[in-house]
Amino acid sequence: MGGKVTLKDVARETGVHVSTVSRALDPATSDSLSAEVVGRVRAAAERLGYRRNNLARSLRTRRTMTVGVTLPDITNTLYAPMVRGADGVLEQAGYASIIVSTDDDPKRKEKMLDILLERGVDGILDIGALRDDPQILKAVYEGVPVVTANREVEGSSIPCVLSDDAEGIRLVFELLESKGHVAIAHLGGPDHISTGWLRREVFRRNLENRGGPITGAEIVPAHRFDEDEGYRCAVELLESRPGFTALVCANDRLALGAIQAFKDKGLSCPGDISVTGFNDLPFLHLIPPGLTTIRVQHFNVGRFGAELLLKMMTDPEAPIPRR
To answer: Count of CB atoms within 10 A of residue 186's CB?
Structure first.
């Protein structure tokens, strides 16, 4: 068949109405047809080489069938399963993901969000939210559906999907106490990120409940969630509070940096200092001596976030729970 294949061509091939072809090829409406009709139409469309004109469709429906996904660091393996979980849901519904990296930099995030809004995305899944995040709130004020995943915007009503950070920190604290540790320190995450702030506050509450002394030297906050900051903070702890026997780190990358710092100082893990992480990155079992860590269901965080966003985009009046 010469020239561009149209809906009419597919309709002629299958013997159904053009509107039926359109519904069969649209994931959002194909459920209204029988599986036999949908299969026959899609097979014919593929055989003829039909390609949907999404530009024309977006002009008609005022939807671009695209979703913006913001990441704090596209090189961090932590976020790959979140994106995969989200993309599986969005692709099934006919949406394409536009992924941008903010580097946890408010100015860069503003720029990336402006690009997404200019492209007319139908919604945003923000995996790189900050506790105080005027950039993402701007998108909400403009009427764009937004869901945050893994982090939350403090004091906002933006739906979010979070892991149970409080329970994770409580479990590692309880484990270390059961092993006889009394002098337990914490290498905290950045203040401006909800996961860093909350995990540190939960650690502090565990210290208070234990009845032990609380000093600033027992908790050192990192500026970033990476190995370099883990190294720096571990050295600071050794200098300000020598004698601690266990270290609860706010994430695995901080823990890996701390372990390297202890090694460089002639200390062994866990012989001299026990170290725990948070997130259970996929390669940890390959790094001796291994790392005790809290497993987070990253794939499901992304999947649930995308499901919430999809509900907001397709049914704005539906009640949206926080997960």
So the answer is: 27
